[in-house]
Write a structure and sequence with these properties.
Distance between the termini: 81 Å
Order of helices and strands: HHEHEEEEH
Strand order of the largest sheet: 1-5-4-3-2
Number of domains: 1
Oligomer: single chain
Number of strands: 5
Structural class: alpha+beta
Largest sheet: 5 strands, mixed
CATH topology: Nuclear Transport Factor 2, Chain: A
Radius of gyration: 19 Å
Helix content: 25-40%
CATH architecture: Roll
Number of helices: 4
Length: about 160
């Protein structure tokens, strides 16, 4: 019995367009919608049944999960920006490596505003369906963020 090797299947132009559209939608959420705290446009790009696999217990289900975190970040941080270093997509998954930065100007999980600037790394994976995000996984350097917000300034010794 001989095993025949299958030739790689080239992506179709329709698949390429869908992948590029998924990347554009995911990029838009971080670069435009979250910094503007734009709930109306967020609804256009996130499904009502959205599942945030990183949400802590007690987080609202569906789109409410994303909206809650977007509002929380907008209330805690001004001048927010997500700088995307890499964005990769295959099939219905989009992976984003980025840096979230801004200034701490409001309460953040009980930590009063410090006025400090911050920048920390994040990785997000978003599953897309029909042009909308339906699932989310993330890895964030939350410890690095908290160090930046709470570190005591070093005193200089002479």
């Amino acid at each position: 019995m001989t095993l025949a090797s299958a030739a790689p299947v080239a992506p179709s132009p329709a698949t390429d367009l869908t992948i590029e559209a998924n990347k554009a939608a995911a990029r838009r959420v971080l670069e435009e919608i979250f910094p503007a705290n734009d709930q109306t446009t967020l609804r256009e790009l996130m499904d009502d049944s959205f599942v945030n696999h990183e949400a802590p217990p007690g987080t609202p289900p569906g789109l409410g999960s994303v909206t809650m975190f977007m509002n929380l970040l907008a209330d805690a941080f001004s001048d927010q920006r997500w700088t995307i270093d890499q964005i990769i997509a295959e099939g219905d998954l989009v992976a984003i490596h980025c840096i979230h930065s801004g200034r701490h100007t409001g309460d953040y999980f009980g930590l009063p505003a410090t006025g400090r600037q911050f920048a920390y790394k994040q990785m997000h994976m978003i599953k897309m369906r029909n042009g909308k995000g339906v699932e989310h996984w993330a890895v964030r350097d939350d410890a690095g963020l908290m160090r930046q917000l709470t570190a005591t300034p070093r005193s200089s010794r002479h």
